[in-house]
Write a structure and sequence with these properties.
By secondary structure, this protein is mainly alpha-helical. The protein folds into three domains: 1-31; 35-218, no CATH class; 224-384, no CATH class. 71% of the residues lie in helices and 0% in strands. The chain has 13 helices and no strands. It has helices spanning 3-23, 25-30, 41-70, 92-103, 106-111, 117-150, 158-181, 192-214, 230-255, 285-289, 291-319, 323-348, 353-383. Helix 3 (41-70) packs antiparallel against helix 13 (353-383) and helix 11 packs antiparallel against helix 12 (323-348). The two termini are 19 Å apart. Bound molecules: protoporphyrin IX containing FE (HEM). Protoporphyrin IX containing FE binds at residues 66, 69-70, 199, 243, 246-247, 250-251, 253-254, 259, 265, 298-299, 302, 305, 336, 339-340, 343-344, 346-347, 351, 356, 359-360, 363, 366.
Length: 384
């Protein structure tokens, strides 16, 4: 078909849907699952911008979550009130009540005995901000989503994908509380397992939002990857999996405070392979609970990802006939190497707050870049 004819059809489809939305407003209200076929670009741009904004908020949430953990604030609010909890203590009496509840948990008596009210307020505000941002993201997702859905601005099947992400967000709120609960009795920190699940779900939400937003991009150019080997077409998915595994390992390091042991690099305890790697029984417990093994695994996985990223980039640079995938591979490699450098610096500096935060934010950026690279390779592969 000639381009002029295609353009005319496109404009007519657009005009048809705008006219229908204007004249059948009432009908759309009565039948909210109206969906629009692919091709109407202005709606896609609006939905896409909204998804990127929510992804930005999730990124901020990950950083505030990191600050909450690194300032040891996570256990300061000892109850879970999904709606009423949005209101912080407003009077001196309210603050005293919240403080008394905190004094009843082991973290207060073992770690923070004698803490003043103003010190308590500091940790309370971090946790409150983390939870408040979570609620805010829920609203910033749900209201525009309903609006787009009711107005018939979503592509066929897209609403269900968005709903899936929304459900995952709700689950994340629950897991967050489940994690906090693990630190309220018998221990002074949350379980490293629950911390890892909480962080991985946050990264999964971020990755899905970015994927969905990318998927609404107008097709400016049809990518080609015929010259790239099948092996390298598969590497991006492997990288995504490894980045998630590495993030889980990082959360175990953080949860066990394993970053405060072996503060040397490249050796651990003067050795490449430190002793004490497999002292727990059964053996698999070492992977999750042995401070030495957990830190060792986090290091080795970082090297593996770094080597794979460089090899993949070189292969694409030599064989790919589409510069966009080379650019996304280069971006990913740059972020991996920066993240490794940050991790080493943080370890040598005994995990200062700001470096811990930058490392956590770096991991979220890495998730975003590996999703971008996977997306470009996938779209290239399927549309070649
Ligand atoms: C691909 C590279 C890497 C990724 C994606 C990554 C990711 C992560 C993540 C997600 C966390 C958890 C943060 C949290 O829950 O607050 C973490 C923690 C940590 N990582 Fe990495 N990391 C990488 C490389 C490294 C390297 C090379 C080192 C040092 C040799 C390192 C040292 C640490 C330490 C010490 C912690 C614990 C920080 C704390 O206690 O807050 N990381 N990492």
């Amino acid at each position: 078909m000639r381009p002029a004819l295609l353009g005319r059809i496109d404009r007519e489809v657009d005009a048809h849907y705008h006219a229908r939305n204007a004249f059948l407003g009432l009908r759309i209200m009565a039948f909210p699952m109206t969906q629009r076929p692919e091709g109407s670009r202005s709606e896609d741009t609006a939905v896409r911008s909204w998804l990127f904004i929510v992804a930005g908020l999730v990124f901020a949430m990950i950083v505030v979550g990191g600050a909450t953990r690194l300032t040891d604030s996570g256990l300061s609010i000892t109850e879970w009130l999904p709606i009423l909890g949005a209101i912080p203590p407003l009077s001196d009496v309210d603050w005293q009540v919240a403080f008394e509840k905190y004094k009843a948990i082991p973290e207060y008596s073992i770690v923070n005995a004698g803490m003043s009210l103003s010190e308590f307020k500091y940790i309370y505000w971090w946790e409150w901000a983390h939870r408040f941002l979570g609620r805010f993201i829920g609203v910033a997702f749900a209201i525009p989503f309903l609006g787009f859905w009711i107005a018939g601005m979503l592509r066929p099947g897209f609403a269900w994908k968005c709903l899936g992400v929304f459900v995952l967000g709700g689950l994340q709120g629950f897991i967050g509380w489940y994690m906090v609960k693990s630190g309220l009795v018998d221990r002074v920190d949350v379980s490293q397992y629950r911390l890892a699940v909480h962080l991985l779900i946050a990264f999964a939400i971020l990755g899905l939002l970015i994927w969905l937003a990318l998927d609404l991009a107008p097709d400016t150019k049809s990518p080609r990857l015929q010259t790239v080997s099948l092996l390298h077409r598969r590497v991006p998915l492997v990288l995504v999996v490894l980045v998630f595994v590495q993030s889980g390992l990082g959360a175990l390091v953080a949860g066990l405070k394993a970053g405060l042991t072996y503060n040397t690099w490249p050796l651990m305890d003067g050795k490449v392979i430190p002793s004490g790697l497999g002292t727990m029984s059964p053996w698999f417990l070492n992977v999750f609970e042995n401070v030495t093994t957990v830190q060792f695994n986090h290091r080795v996985m970082a090297y593996a990802i770094g080597v794979l990223a460089i090899w993949h980039l070189l292969a694409l640079a030599c064989t790919a006939d589409d510069e966009r995938v080379v650019m996304s591979a280069a971006l990913f490699t740059f972020v991996v190497l920066s993240q490794m450098a940050l991790g080493i610096w943080m370890l040598l500096a005994h995990v200062p707050l700001w470096l811990g935060l930058v490392h956590q934010a770096g991991a979220a950026i890495l998730v975003a870049t590996c999703i971008l690279h996977l997306y470009r390779m996938r779209r290239s592969a399927t549309r070649a």
